[in-house]
Amino acid sequence: MEDDEIVELFWQRSESAIAATQIKYSKYCRSIAYSILRNYEDAQECVNDALVNVWNAIPPARPSVLCTFLGKITRNLSINALEKLKAQKRGLGQVPLVLSELDECVGQAECEALQRAELEAITDAVNAFLEQLDAEKRKVFVRRYWYASSLEEIACDYSMNVSKVKSILFRLRKKLKRELEKEGVSL
Amino acid sequence: MKSKQLLLAIGGIEDKYIEEADLELNVSSFKGKGKKLMLSAWRYAPVAACAAIVLAAAISAWQNEYGLLQNPMRPVSDNSASIPKPAATPAQNGTPAENSTAAAVQSDSGESQLAHFFNIGAKVYVQ
Predict the structure, then answer these.
(1) Could you give the 3-state DSSP secondary structure of residue B37?
(2) d(C-alpha B2, C-alpha A71), whole Å
(3) Of A146, A149, A157, the CB nearest to B10
(4) How confident is the model at residue B84 (pLDDT cuts 50, 70, 90)?
(5) How many other β-carbons are positioned within 10 Å of the β-carbon of residue A187?
(6) Nearest-Cα residue of chain B relative to residue A64
(7) d(CA B44, nearest CA chain A) in Å
(8) Which of A45, A71, A56, A46 is nearest to A18 (CA)?
(9) Based on the number of CB atoms within 10 Å of its own CB, is A43 exposed (0-12), middle (13-18) or buried (19 or more)?
């Protein structure tokens, strides 16, 4: 089934949209979640959460590329899940909870808006940076920092050795830092 | 915290870049895996070659020992005595060295083929 048809099913609030999405993109989403979490059960849980989020987001959203829309949601959920898991492992299970409770006192809406604006500025700078790069370096960068693929996986997929991937990423990080400073983004 | 901000910001990059480096759709990923398999297969090529040489040598030694396959270069057996010999041609009536060579090849002394040729070579050299 084509992406447009699946999106249309979401707009009609048809549950077959979830099944169609699952058939077409569950493997893709699971690979993203697994790259971040390195645990099959947690990855599967994130994929299920992502499908629920997509169900809630469409409508009003009408994504032009359903694949990346799903991917972004899965990635964000996986990063959040990873943070929670890390906190639990460290025995700091209550601290994130306490912080989230305190967030209510800090004027959350303003804070979130500010953070979102900052993130958008950084994203624009990163997009400008990626635009300058040649395709190979851009793919390596995205595979590492968007898909969270391991160095070995990237080396294997792009027929390079691991040391070359490392050196490309090292130069790209330096360049990104310079670009962000030039754009006036403070991190 | 700053690196997390950057990680989240990278999460919002344009779709075209995400699609370009897609995990599954990218054809190069399959090429790469194929190449890796090829490389790992070639790693065992010297071992396989050595094993083939050893196996060939072992089979050859086994055949020499038990004579399971008739080697055309082996000395003719005594059964050949029952077969009438053709009349000697002028070409066969050669020098004494040539005659001794033929005799050596036809003898069934049980010596190895290498020893036969060594003896023949030595006789020719002496003459």
Answers:
(1) helix
(2) 23
(3) A146
(4) low
(5) 14
(6) B15
(7) 20
(8) A56
(9) buried
Are the beta carbons of A115 and A103 closer than 8 angstroms? no
**pLDDT tens, per residue, chain A with 187 residues:** 788 888 888 888 888 888 888 888 888 888 888 888 888 888 898 999 999 999 998 888 888 888 888 888 999 899 888 888 877 776 655 666 566 666 666 555 656 666 778 888 888 888 888 988 888 899 999 988 888 888 888 888 888 888 999 999 999 998 888 888 887 776 6
- Residue to mutate among A122, A144, A169, with most B CBs inside 10 A, is A122
Extents of the domains making up chain B: 74-127
* Residues A38, A10 contacting (CB under 8 angstroms): no
Among all residues of chain B, which has the CA nearest to that of A140? B21
Q: What is the ipTM of this complex?
A: 0.78
pLDDT at residue number A167: 92
The structural domains of chain A, ordered by start, are 3-98 (1.10.1740), 110-182 (1.10.10.10)
Among all residues of chain A, which has the CA nearest to that of B30?
A157
- Note whether B5 contacts A: Cβ–Cβ < 8 A: yes
Q: What are phi and psi of A150, to 5 degrees?
A: -75, 160
